[in-house]
């Protein structure tokens, strides 16, 4: 193998321009793949973070009946012991209890269907960035409204624009309460939020959870616990740990024969299956890009190996005539292709890894696509700068695959060179 290596290096130096172009093609391919994979992982992480930050969290707890059919009366008692057990689970960063209902919010001029979300203002601000998204007024007070005063409401910016209301205006909320009665209450707009999340900005109205319980006739009840995880990628494991802590069931209860009142802990992958599908779409779309990049690099290597073989046919004929075995000649040409791939891959890593690290450290500016401080894609809010995510697999995989591509690309020219007939080749007749 040492002889093949020496011959390969010598032959590559014969035409440095062509070899350099091939190395450059491989290097660019590897660098693009490393950068692209890091961007993809960063994009996916931002997608999950943006989708779960305001809405679902990384884990949710509901009753089994509510998961199967989210009706207003499918609630569970909200007590301090339950919250303390969930907060004590390792990996839980914050917990927010919520009450959800659909109703009609409006005034004498306009009305709008809204998602009424009752929250503990302090816990919600800890579990989500909602309080930091206020663009007018303020977030909800820690205590519910005193008797006789309008109950506070914070609206999404899109809903406020639809109703043409501002901070200080009064609204009325109507909804069908859990006991079948028509709940209605006077609300005062104390804040407006802009999140770049469609569900929040266009449809959501936040009330203090005790105010929402009063309107919905669900005193002391909640529909869900929204849990923010310390490690976003460990949502499934955290859901199982939460389920053990509360004596519940981790996973989709459909067909499990659970008591309707059983508390079910589910990761975001099960709460929002559409998000999982979107992530798969991202990954699958990148497969096409990978294949194109590999194809371009393979064409370059094939061309180099083929041209080299054609130029050296007489040399190969002489070597075969003096006793070199075709197998050794085959290995020599394959070694040349492997050397080109290895040098190109190393240069690609040297380029792609630092650039990816820079974007992981300082982020990739999405401000070029929007004038706002946030970036929205398919109703999901992102920060203005996306931080890339570098993993060992995303660096090793392009290198290994490109080395395999190099070997396979050099195989055809190598086989043809090893099969030449020495006599006519030396005589120049082929």
Q: What order do the helices and strands come in, and which of them pair?
A:
Elements: H1 2-14, H2 16-56, E1 59-63, H3 64-68, E2 76-77, H4 80-87, E3 92-106, E4 111-119, H5 121-127, E5 134-137, E6 151-156, H6 157-163, E7 170-176, E8 182-193, H7 198-203, E9 204-208, H8 209-216, E10 221-222, E11 224-229, H9 235-246, E12 249-250, E13 263-267, H10 268-271, H11 273-311, H12 313-321, H13 326-362, E14 364-365, E15 374-377, E16 380-383, E17 385-386, H14 392-418, H15 422-427
Parallel strand pairs: 4-9, 6-8, 12-13
Antiparallel strand pairs: 1-11, 1-13, 2-10, 3-4, 3-7, 3-11, 5-8, 6-9, 7-8, 14-17, 15-16
Structure description:
- The protein has 430 residues and is of the alpha+beta class.
- It has 2 domains: 2-52 and 275-427, no CATH class; 71-222, no CATH class.
- Helix content is 53%, strand content 21%.
- The chain is built from 15 helices and 17 strands.
- It has helices at 2-14, 16-56, 64-68, 80-87, 121-127, 157-163, 198-203, 209-216, 235-246, 268-271, 273-311, 313-321, 326-362, 392-418, 422-427; strands at residues 59-63, 76-77, 92-106, 111-119, 134-137, 151-156, 170-176, 182-193, 204-208, 221-222, 224-229, 249-250, 263-267, 364-365, 374-377, 380-383, 385-386.
- The strands form 4 sheets. A 6-stranded mixed beta barrel has the order 3-4-9-6-8-7, surrounded by 4 helices. It has a two-stranded antiparallel sheet with strand order 2-10. A two-stranded antiparallel sheet has the order 14-17.
- The longest helix is centred in the N-terminal third of the chain and has 41 residues, at 16-56.
- The radius of gyration is 32 Å and the shape is elongated.
- The relative contact order is 0.18.
- The mean pLDDT is 81.
């Amino acid at each position: 193998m040492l002889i093949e290596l020496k011959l390969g290096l010598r032959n590559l130096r014969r035409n440095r321009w062509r070899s350099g172009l091939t190395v450059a093609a491989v290097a660019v391919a590897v660098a693009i793949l490393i950068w692209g994979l890091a961007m993809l992982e960063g994009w996916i992480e931002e997608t999950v973070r943006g989708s779960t930050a305001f809405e679902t969290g990384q884990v949710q707890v509901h009753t089994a009946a509510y998961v199967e059919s989210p009706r207003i009366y499918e609630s569970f008692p909200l007590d301090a012991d339950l919250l303390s057990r969930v907060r004590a689970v390792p990996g839980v960063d914050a917990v927010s209890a919520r009450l959800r209902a659909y109703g009609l919010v409006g005034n004498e001029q306009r009305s709008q269907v809204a998602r009424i979300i009752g929250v503990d203002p302090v816990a919600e601000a800890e579990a989500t960035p909602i309080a930091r998204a206020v663009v007018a007024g303020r977030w909800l007070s820690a205590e519910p409204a005193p008797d006789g005063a309008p109950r506070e409401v914070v609206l999404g910016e899109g809903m406020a624009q639809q109703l043409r209301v501002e901070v200080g205006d009064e609204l009325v909320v109507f909804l069908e309460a859990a006991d079948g009665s028509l709940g209605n209450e006077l609300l005062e707009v104390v804040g407006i939020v802009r999140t770049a999340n469609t569900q929040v900005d266009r449809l959501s109205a936040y009330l203090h959870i005790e105010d929402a319980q009063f309107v919905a006739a669900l005193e002391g009840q909640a529909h869900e616990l929204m849990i923010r995880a310390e490690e976003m990628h460990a949502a499934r494991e955290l859901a199982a740990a939460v389920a053990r802590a509360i004596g519940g069931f981790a996973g989709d209860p459909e067909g499990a024969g659970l008591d309707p009142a059983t508390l079910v802990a589910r990761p975001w992958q099960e709460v929002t299956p559409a998000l999982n599908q979107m992530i798969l779409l991202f990954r699958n779309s990148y497969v096409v890009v990978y294949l194109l990049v590999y194809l371009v690099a393979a064409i370059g290597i094939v061309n180099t190996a083929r041209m080299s073989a054609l130029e050296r046919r007489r040399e190969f004929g002489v070597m075969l005539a003096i006793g070199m075995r075709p197998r050794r000649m085959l290995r020599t040409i394959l070694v040349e292709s492997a050397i080109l791939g290895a040098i190109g891959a190393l240069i690609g890593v040297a380029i792609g890894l630092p650039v990816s690290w820079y974007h992981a450290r300082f982020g990739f500016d999405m401000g070029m696509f929007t004038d706002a401080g946030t970036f929205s894609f398919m109703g999901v809010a992102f920060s203005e700068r996306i931080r890339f995510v570098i993993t060992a697999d995303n660096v090793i995989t392009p290198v290994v695959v490109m080395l395999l591509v190099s070997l396979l690309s050099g195989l055809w020219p190598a086989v043809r060179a090893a099969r030449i007939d020495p006599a006519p080749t030396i005589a120049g007749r082929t």
